[in-house]
């Protein structure tokens, strides 16, 4: 099981679809392009990775064949328990899979929801593109940075 990484006591919870299929030498759950792109954006807006707790819809590394919808429904119970226990001030869903699962709406998408706050299940929530989508489609980078500026502004406001 991979519950998450970074600061478990952070007031900002970032939700991704699943942990990476590989680990780094320290056993960290998400690596390479996802971590690098996320860190770049976070640092660009003056935040630190320690300001975040990064968790996943799926709590284990993906396998080749599995019932994705059923597995996500099961794993959402675990995410709900994490949220109840950690009580983050707000949630950021990265990528359409995380958005659709967290919002419980298969029609929800980042493109439509980004740039504003939404009350989702009692949580102040926003969305941004998945870091790997940003790496694969460089035209999304400016939107990704705008989203993190938006997030950082709210974070600074909540910090006083």
- Beginning-to-end CA distance, first to last residue: 35 Å
Number of helices: 6
Strand content: 15-25%
Range of helix content:
40-55%
What is the mean pLDDT? 87
What is the CATH topology classification name? Uracil-DNA Glycosylase, subunit E
What is the architecture at the second tier of CATH? Answer: 3-Layer(aba) Sandwich
* Low-confidence sequence ranges: none
For the record, the CATH class is Alpha Beta
Give the full name of the CATH homologous superfamily: Uracil-DNA glycosylase-like domain
Instruction: Describe the sheet with the most strands.
Output: 6 strands, mixed
- In terms of structural class, how would the helical and strand content be classed? alpha/beta
Strand order of the largest sheet: 1-3-2-4-6-5
